[in-house]
Amino acid sequence: MTAPAGPSGRTLREREARAGLFLMSPTLVITLVVVVVPLLWAVMLAFQNVRLINIRRVGLFGRYTLENFAYVLAEPGFWSALANTLVYTVAGTVLSIGVGLAAALALRGAFPGRTLVRASILIPYVAPVVAVAFLWQVMLSPQYGIVNTWLGEPIAFLSQAEGAFLGVRVPVALLTVIAFEAWRYFPFAFLFILARLQALPPELDEAAVVDGATPTQRFRHVTLPQLWRVIALLSVLRFVFTFTKFDDVYLLTGGGAGTEVVAVRVYDFLTARDDLGASAAQAIVMAAVLVVFLVVYLRSFGGAEARR
Amino acid sequence: MTGATRPPLTRDRLERGLLRVLKPLVIAALVLATAFPFLYMAMLSVRDVQELILEPGSLWPRRFTLSSYADVLGRQGFLTFMRNSAIVSAASVAATLLISIPGAYALARLRFRGRRQVHFLFLAVYLFPAIVPAIPLFVLFTMLGLRGSLGGLVLVYVAQTVPVAVYMLRNYFETVPESVEEAAAIDGCGRIGTILRVVLPLSKPALMATGLYAFMIAWNEFLFALLFLVEKRESWTVSLGLSQLAGGIEVPATVLMAGSVVLTLPIVAVFFASERLLAGGLAIGAEKG
């Protein structure tokens, strides 16, 4: 049986498909032109010896080479930046989710002023990164920052690579940048986790109360198992976003004092060194490392899901 | 048994008691950590810089002064930057909605080839690091002479927000009952007429949420503004202007904080004015960039 033909001689199904593609086309065009094509171009740049000056001569089909990768990977700065990125990402992800979870649990029930508290919690996340980065710089300034007036002796939080804390050597600036990350993004985790908490059926918790479970037991065995999915999702999102983050570190420390992350290096190669090829090669390596981590994570996590 | 018996101290009672104390403490700590820095920002912006250096520990200014704001808005040109940011943000919101509404409608209602693959594409765009396409776009804009133009910046912002916008809108459009649309079709509405007269009026909250998301990205964004506009001062956005202000010579902290207030206040105001309408929309987006 054939579908009834429309006035233009095509079937309804065909007309629907045409309309669908027509309505989708602006979205597809802008995504392709501004995101997908540049991505492919970035890959090509990574394999070419290009600077901004000779870009016109090199062209799309210039000589392809692995020099950029060899150069980038041979620099010790890259490996320390990669290590910094990892520490920064893992710690920033764990802390922001941890604080977000605590905040969501604390704000789960109703109490007077809850709306205001919630609004206050969201501000670090809504405020522009440039403003909050300078706010931290000013607050932590060794000369006139308010935080240092509370301390016995001033600490240069953002410009001191290492310091001693209770006799242990700690990377001061890196820890400060991680704290910034946790402070700025815990509201993101808070929003996700609170939404999930409020959607949980109350019956399970009530049943556990009747069975005599204490609050921590209920959290451990009733609430937390229902939150794992959203926490897993948040881990992926925060890991991906933090791993490639540029603004926060660039604005806080400029990548100095042992806080250089790969994204900041990519930017430096692009602007200060004017080395497009090496910059692109670094960005590609960064993306590749990220994909490897994601695959490993999804494999192990997916496996755990299947066993459950 | 004698009168005043207290129930024995069980683990349950102990934990409940502890939590009753702990919860307000956690809430107080959270409020302090989030609200205090912004109050400090506002206080510094109306303080005299000499006073700050003499008494960095005091919170309340002895004397209020608006000279930092005069400096930022006048001499540093933040009024121009605010105008630029407003133009870029408004254009991004308009273009994002204009492009994503038909796309979202198509995904919600129409069957066509490649519909499933589109989701994958969007997820990839959402998760992909912005700095990777930034490199060739920087080259391209240099070659085309588009560096310094606000239009180029809008293009990039729209491309970054469209995937999430389509996703948010599609989810909402799917909740609009199909029977309402069929009724409109029977009454003689074409496809476009149905979208304009039936679907959009029913989707106001989602449109607000999507618009707010696009606005936040455009107003707060820093990397692309830095890459594309830095050489042309008259087209700086507020974010870029503030970052360059800090890099300048001997800008007092009070002026820096006044600039931060100027940058933060509009977005926080817009956010809280429309937040009631958003429900879950915000949780998806607002990152990226």
Automatic annotation (TrEMBL), chain A:
Gene3D superfamilies, A to Z: MetI-like
Residue span(s) of domain ABC transmembrane type-1: 82-297
Membrane topology summary: Multi-pass membrane protein
Pfam families, per database record: BPD_transp_1
GO cellular component: plasma membrane
Subcellular location: Cell membrane
Keywords: Cell membrane, Membrane, Transmembrane, Transmembrane helix, Transport
Biological processes annotated in GO: transmembrane transport
Keyword hit for Translocase: no
Key word Zinc-finger present: no
Domain of life: Bacteria
InterPro entries per UniProt: MetI-like, MetI-like_sf, UgpAE/MalFG_permease
Membrane-crossing segments per the record: 21-47, 86-107, 119-139, 172-194, 227-244, 276-298
Family recorded in the similarity comment: Belongs to the binding-protein-dependent transport system permease family.
PANTHER family given in the database record: BLL4140 PROTEIN, DIACETYLCHITOBIOSE UPTAKE SYSTEM PERMEASE PROTEIN DASB
Name of the protein in question: Sugar ABC transporter permease
Organism whose genome encodes this protein: Sphaerisporangium album
From TrEMBL, chain B:
Domain ABC transmembrane type-1 intervals: 82-274
GO annotation, biological process: transmembrane transport
Gene3D superfamilies per record: MetI-like (1.10.3720.10)
PROSITE patterns listed in its UniProt record: ABC_TM1 (PS50928)
Spans traversing the lipid bilayer: 21-42, 86-108, 120-144, 206-229, 249-273
Pfam families assigned: BPD_transp_1
Superkingdom in the source lineage: Bacteria
Subcellular location as annotated: Cell membrane
Cellular component GO terms, alphabetical: plasma membrane
Magnesium is among the record's keywords: no
Membrane topology field: Multi-pass membrane protein
Keywords for this protein: Cell membrane, Membrane, Transmembrane, Transmembrane helix, Transport
Range of residues in the leader sequence: none
InterPro entries: BP-dep_ABC_trans_perm (IPR050901), MetI-like (IPR000515), MetI-like_sf (IPR035906)
SUPFAM superfamilies linked: MetI-like
The family this protein is said to belong to: Belongs to the binding-protein-dependent transport system permease family.
Protein name as catalogued: Carbohydrate ABC transporter permease
Organism: Sphaerisporangium album
